[in-house]
């Protein structure tokens, strides 16, 4: 019997998604767990795997279509069965979505001319470059969705770019390298609505103001953070941690990992310490649900990762059960996928507590806004060598400040302070994290 594939809900606040690319065509065989499509949300482009095995009998929507969550997007069945598409789609509780028809130009407004470069027209702002249905651009060029967007922004012809990704696929760094060469030669074109910023002249008038449209990611961040700040009464508790023992243990561990390509970071120790401390304070590993508090059984730590025009939170599942090395590999791999523009649903779903670490930017300390619907988030600053007082003498010491932001509807200052003491117990005696 045929199965209906629906637009997945990739995050609690997702309302719709855009079919960025179909990885399978009608008539292709697909196995459960095999890549079926790339779907663009407000936050990222997500690789979606098929939940069924069989043959792709019908793609109900085209690439570029915007589809509400839980609406049918494809049908998977056997090669020879007879399928009543209308009946099957109706039984699934929805109608197939279609790409919105373009609005006709008003008679009084002449259409804007398209910019031509070497005979190839550039894509319209906000729309993906055309595809031939298998994820390639015309001429057989393979590129990630993020690479396509950056190429569009910077006026780069993907047909002239060499790809360094799998099977020659063009990735972000390839486009940026090509754009750098174009700018050096003085041939770069500005994206409509987002002109390139010229270097400030030594003399003469200052550059004119520029209006830069908000990306979908920035709009989503704005909505979520505004809602969190307005709805949740935040309070903040800052603690200073002694970091000598963590830095020494990290140094020894990285010496042992030489030649493996792996390397532990201070953030890996912070993730593990926080995960273990949350076992002792389930009220902070929680979310508010109406008039009840949900204490989550799993400790899933979200890490904020800086990406193009914003940030994403990638999630390490069951961080309290993982070793430092496993945490390091998990965060590194998921952060790399986030920065490349293509993540998997499991990469960004299910966090119960988040960490925002700006330590690599020489930040002393800061406060973070809650990541709804979580009850708390930890903002981590830099580990710095500073003067400290020991036994009445001023000596050098390594210290790191972190601030926990907590929803006052869920917890209070005393519990937050005790939680920070528990984190300190692990960071200042890191051997306890591996025993």
Descriptive key words:
435 residues; alpha+beta; OB fold (Dihydrolipoamide Acetyltransferase, E2P); Dihydrolipoamide Transferase; 21 strands; globular
What's the gist of this structure?
26% of the residues lie in helices and 26% in strands. It has helices spanning 85-91, 145-154, 172-184, 216-231, 244-256, 266-280, 324-340, 345-348, 413-428, and strands at 3-6, 16-22, 29-30, 35-40, 45-49, 54-59, 66-68, 72-77, 116-117, 120-121, 136-137, 141-142, 234-242, 286-289, 292-295, 301-307, 310-316, 342-343, 353-357, 376-390, 393-407.
Q: How is the largest sheet built, in terms of strand order?
A: 13-21-20-19-16-17
CATH architectural group of the largest domain: 2-Layer Sandwich
Cα radius of gyration in angstroms? 25 Å
Content of β-strand: 25-35%
Topology:
Layout: E1 3-6, E2 16-22, E3 29-30, E4 35-40, E5 45-49, E6 54-59, E7 66-68, E8 72-77, H1 85-91, E9 116-117, E10 120-121, E11 136-137, E12 141-142, H2 145-154, H3 172-184, H4 216-231, E13 234-242, H5 244-256, H6 266-280, E14 286-289, E15 292-295, E16 301-307, E17 310-316, H7 324-340, E18 342-343, H8 345-348, E19 353-357, E20 376-390, E21 393-407, H9 413-428
Parallel strand pairs: 5-18, 16-19, 19-20
Antiparallel strand pairs: 1-8, 2-4, 2-7, 3-6, 4-5, 6-8, 9-10, 11-12, 13-21, 14-15, 16-17, 20-21
């Amino acid at each position: 019997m045929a199965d209906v594939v629906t637009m997945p809900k990739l995050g609690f606040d997702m309302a719709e998604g855009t079919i960025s690319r179909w990885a399978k065509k009608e008539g292709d065989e697909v196995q459960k767990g095999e890549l079926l499509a790339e779907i663009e949300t407000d936050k990222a482009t997500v690789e979606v795997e098929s939940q069924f095995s069989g043959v792709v009998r019908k793609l109900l929507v085209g690439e570029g279509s915007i589809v509400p969550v839980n609406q049918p997007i494809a049908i998977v069945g056997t090669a020879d069965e007879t399928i009543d598409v209308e009946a099957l789609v109706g039984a699934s509780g929805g109608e197939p979505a279609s790409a919105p028809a373009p609005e006709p130009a008003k008679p009084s407004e002449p259409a804007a001319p398209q910019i031509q470069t070497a005979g190839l027209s550039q894509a319209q702002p906000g729309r993906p470059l055309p595809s031939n249905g298998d994820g390639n651009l015309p001429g057989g060029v393979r590129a990630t969705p993020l690479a396509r967007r950056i190429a569009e922004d910077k006026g780069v012809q993907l047909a002239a770019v060499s790809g360094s990704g799998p099977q020659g696929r063009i990735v972000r760094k390839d486009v940026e390298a090509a754009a750098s060469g174009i700018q050096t030669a003085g041939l770069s074109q500005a994206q409509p609505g987002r002109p390139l910023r010229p270097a400030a002249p030594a003399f003469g008038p200052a550059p004119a103001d520029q209006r830069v449209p908000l990306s979908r990611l920035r709009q989503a961040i704005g909505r979520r953070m505004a809602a969190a700040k307005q709805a949740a009464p935040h309070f903040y508790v800052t603690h200073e941690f002694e970091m000598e023992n963590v830095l020494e243990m990290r140094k020894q561990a990285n010496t042992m990992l030489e030649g493996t390509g792996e390397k532990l970071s201070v953030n890996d120790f912070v993730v593990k310490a926080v995960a273990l401390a949350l076992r002792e304070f389930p009220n902070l590993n929680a979310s508010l649900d109406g008039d009840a508090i949900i204490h989550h059984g799993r400790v899933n730590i979200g890490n904020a990762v800086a990406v193009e025009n914003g940030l994403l939170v990638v999630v390490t599942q069951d961080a309290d059960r993982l070793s430092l090395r496993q945490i390091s590999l998990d965060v590194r791999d998921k952060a790399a996928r986030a920065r490349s523009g293509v993540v998997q649903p499991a990469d960004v779903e299910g966090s119960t507590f988040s960490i925002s670490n700006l330590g690599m930017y020489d930040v002393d300390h800061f406060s973070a806004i809650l990541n709804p619907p979580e009850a708390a988030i930890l903002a981590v600053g830099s580990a710095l060598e500073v003067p400290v007082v020991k036994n009445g003498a001023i000596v050098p010491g390594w210290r790191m400040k972190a601030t926990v932001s907590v929803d006052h509807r869920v917890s209070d200052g005393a519990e937050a302070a005790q939680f920070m003491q528990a984190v300190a117990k692990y960071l200042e005696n890191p051997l306890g994290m591996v025993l």
